[in-house]
Write a structure and sequence with these properties.
This protein is an all-alpha fold and about 160 residues long. It has eight helices and two strands. Keywords: Repeat.
């Protein structure tokens, strides 16, 4: 098993825990993003931190996106005493948005050259979904952040 394979396994295990904490039956791209943001010292974590996105800020942005989505259908979480999610009892499966993010990551470089920033770039390349909505609500320019990741990858290659 390569060093990147071990790293990816760790990212997915953390994302699985995030999904279980959310009560989700699937690991989605936003769970991968939370995992990357919590991975102290990785390039992906450093790029996210450079725009103010640590794990807590990503969680806050995702919570804001959830509240915003509810408000679009006329539900205000503040008006109701909504229960928190119940931790999922079964191991979550890989969801479509996470699979797509990983596919985009893997297609961006040769396997031996893959790094944490490639995973982040794969997540940021999504045009629709929870992550783009959450980043927009947090005031993060997703395209600029993706460009920053690309520049970081270029500088690491030199």
């Amino acid at each position: 098993m390569s060093a990147f394979d071990k790293y990816l396994h760790g990212v997915i295990v953390r994302a699985m825990a995030e999904a279980q904490d959310d009560g989700s039956g699937t690991i989605d791209a936003h769970h991968l993003l939370l995992s990357l943001a919590a991975d102290q010292g990785s390039t992906a974590q450093q790029v996210l931190a450079s725009v103010g996105l640590d794990r807590a800020a990503v969680r806050e942005a995702l919570d804001r996106e959830f509240e915003h989505s509810l408000s679009m259908v006329g539900v205000s979480p503040a008006a109701y005493d909504l229960p928190g999610p119940s931790r999922a009892s079964q191991q979550p499966k890989m969801g479509a948005s996470a699979r797509l993010a990983l596919d985009r990551s893997f297609s961006s470089a040769r396997k031996k050259d893959l790094r944490s920033a490639h995973l982040l770039l794969g997540i940021l390349q999504a045009q629709i979904g929870t992550v783009p909505r959450a980043l927009a609500l947090a005031g993060i320019d997703q395209a600029k952040l993706a460009d920053r990741v690309r520049q970081t990858l270029i500088s690491q290659e030199q």
